[in-house]
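Researcher: Please translate sequence to structure tokens.
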Amino acid sequence: MLQINPKKFKPIKNKTIPNPMRPKFRNKAQANIYFLSQRKFNGEKKIKFIRNIKFIISLSAIIIGGYLLSN
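Model: Translation complete:
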């Protein structure tokens, strides 16, 4: 069996345990993939919302214009 030699162990200097699930906070030049994907997702959501608003406004303008022309 393998014997563990206690003299080879080094004391842990940095006692903080890194959490791999937490994204790293860096400046914008070093932005990691997590934040880039979040920005892309938020941008797609905003574009979809604007497109829906334009559709609703144009549809309501057509309905109101048709109503006013029919009277």
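Researcher: Any highlights?
Model: The chain has a mean pLDDT of 76.
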